[in-house]
Amino acid sequence: MQLSNLKIAVVGAGYGGAAAAKALSLLGAQVDVYEQASRIREVGAGIGLRPATMDRFRQWGIFDAIAGVSSPSDYFEILDATATPMLKRRGPAPTATPNPPAPT
Prior knowledge:
By secondary structure, the protein is of the alpha+beta class. It has helices at 15-26, 51-60, 63-67; strands spanning 7-11, 30-34, 75-79, 85-90. It has a two-stranded parallel sheet. It has a two-stranded antiparallel sheet with strand order 3-4. A hairpin with a 5-residue loop joins β3 (75-79) and β4.
């Protein structure tokens, strides 16, 4: 699919907005990202990335940049507003395929 004649505005440079902007730009769209924060910085929250997501990052050529600023975890935990654990489970094993084939 080619989107070369399409101009798209993505509102928000968070996890979802950044992924959407990257995917749309790879399809040929002209993408502008709008973010209300004056700079991108840590906000004290964690994001769990599943193996399929990491595989997609490899396909997009951004895996090394993300791996360089992240760390693997062997469990998944949800905390409430007082940092009391609500749920804790072992996470999936890291994907064994370093460079999976691109989807067809």
